[in-house]
Amino acid sequence: MEKRTLFLLLLILGTAFWGISFSVTKLAIGQGQPLLFLCYRFLLATMVLSVIFWKHVKKLNATTIKTGASLAVSLVLGIYLQTLGITHTSASQCSFVAGITVVMIPVIKLIIYRKAAALKIWIAAVTALTGLFVISVTNKLSIGLGDLYTIIGAFCFAIYLIQVEKVSKVRDIIPTIVPMFATCAVFTFLLASFQNDTVWIPQATTFWLGIIFCALFSTAYMYTISNIAQRYISAERVSIIYLFEPVFGAFAAHFILGEAITSRLLIGGGLIFAATLISELKWRMPGQMAMPSISKQKKC
């Protein structure tokens, strides 16, 4: 199995962890303390990854730390805003709205970097957005505070994915992973310190179980895999694969929180899956050989 295919499968597995994490996080934090939750989540992830990547930790230098810290800014903002969104809306709704990242990435690249994505990426993005619309938009076509937080968080996360793609093209990104999460832990600790109502040792068991799950699976595993995967897969394609997350998120919310699974979820999920397939197609023009994929034209 080639590396690109392997990382596609590992990313899809990771989206299952991410989807589950919406329900786990909502259950863990209730209506408060999202910053403290993230602080412990990033701290535990940093400790685990420091052990796994110890040989890189021993060789840390100023450049690596600076790169990791720069990636942490957009990442921590994105995760914090989406975590905040969970406290104002359902876990399934939040996971659906977070999928807007798939459309934001090619638009940001076009506006800021003057870099247009391939036609099939735009087709896949529109298909995925249609699926997202079918799943998440209510009959009243309304958007709540939780959705607003999640959309802004999705924008920050889109910036993060683009940054990771750029860094991975010019250097090995693995050494930056531990500094990145360590910076996230410091940021969230400082922000939590400014909150007067922070209870540093919550008594709820669900809080600590949520920390363990999110730190190990949706943070340490998923962000490591996604960062390495972007050596072989572009940010646009990665974001489309991430749209499996709301599908897993909806099923997790049903079994963990009792939220309903609807026909809109099944239809929208089918469109999202179709978008993923479209992004992986090799276009064949009449009388021509199939065009090589982006990952074979250049290292993405």
UniProtKB/TrEMBL annotation:
Q: EamA domain spans which residues? A: 8-136, 145-278
GO cellular component terms, alphabetically, are: plasma membrane
Secreted found in the keyword field: no
| Membrane topology annotation | Multi-pass membrane protein
**UniProtKB keywords:** Cell membrane, Membrane, Transmembrane, Transmembrane helix
Keyword tRNA-binding included in the entry's annotation: no
Matching entries from SUPFAM superfamilies are given as: Multidrug resistance efflux transporter EmrE (SSF103481)
TM region(s), chain numbering: 35-53, 65-84, 90-112, 119-137, 143-162, 174-194, 206-226, 238-257, 263-281
The places in or outside the cell where this protein is found are:
Cell membrane
The protein's name: DMT family transporter
Provide the taxonomic classification.
Bacteria, Pseudomonadati, Bacteroidota, Sphingobacteriia, Sphingobacteriales
